[in-house]
Amino acid sequence: MIEIFGLPLPVIAGQVMLGLVNGCFYAVLSLGLAVIFGLLRIVNFAHGAFFTLGAFGAWMLHLYLGLGYWMALLVVPLVVGALGGTFERLLLRRLYGLDPIYGLLLTFGLVLFIEGGLRVAYGTSGQPYPVPEALRGVFNLGFMVLPIYRAWVIVAALLACGATWWLIERTALGARLRAATEKSALTQSFGVNVPLLLTITYGAGIALAAFTGVLAAPILHVNSGMGSNLVIIVFAIVVIGGMGSVFGSIVTALGIGVIEGLTKVFYSEASTTIIFVVMALVLLLRPRGLFGREGSQ
Question: Model's pTM, two decimal places?
Answer without folding.
Answer: 0.89
